[in-house]
Amino acid sequence: MRLTLRVWRQRNADTDGAMSTYEVDDISPDMSFLEMLDVLNERLIVEGEDPVAFDHDCREGICGACSLVINGDAHGPERTTTCQLHMRSFRDGDTIDIEPWRAAAFPVIKDLVVDRSAFDRIIQAGGYVTAPTGAAPEAHATLVPKPDADFAFEHAECIGCGACVAACPNGAAMLFTSAKVNHLNVLPQGAPERETRVLDMVAQMDVEGFGGCTLAGECATACPKGIPLFSITGMNKEWLRATRKAGKR
Hints:
The protein is α+β, with helices and mostly antiparallel strands. It is built from eight helices and seven strands, in the order ββαβββββααααααα. The strands form two sheets. It has a five-stranded mixed sheet. Helix 3 runs antiparallel to helix 5 and helix 5 runs antiparallel to helix 6 (194-207).
């Protein structure tokens, strides 16, 4: 395959960026999207140019590091992570636009790499349990109803990639935050911090400068792990419950 790549290049957060155009040849349809970028970077290095900076780690669809907007879609044309997107999703001769996540809370570090530490600070605000557990308990020591276990697992699948923020027209982080809140709030281990967790995590989300949620639904459409949109409504109920309880104290 021969492709034309229009790639966002930006030296750092303090400089303006622009799209640069590159031609790549001999791209196998079986390559992953990141492998295709590796081919481009190998050529740039040989030619004495600065390679394109992009995030990656596991390349197995687990870590969520591979954050790219491809032809206007978070992670590209398929509902998967960028590292699991293969070049057979494109056609010979295509022009592909490659950009970083676009959100005020995700400033560009260089080229396609953005700073997603805002997510870390949301987790630090309440995405944990404080109950001392000692050694790992037996699996049957704490009984959890299967519907609750399934609900928690569904939300625990969130890999924090940020596709929900990149896809949202408002740059909201509600789907990410709701996944982390609902995962713990439904389990007995998370019950002691149930109210403070949702209040603190939502407050931190607002501090980080994410946009407001209008339930446009683009976040759930772009999520490679299928976190459902009703996760947000569930967190909103938790937040209202916690706010009312805090107001009665």
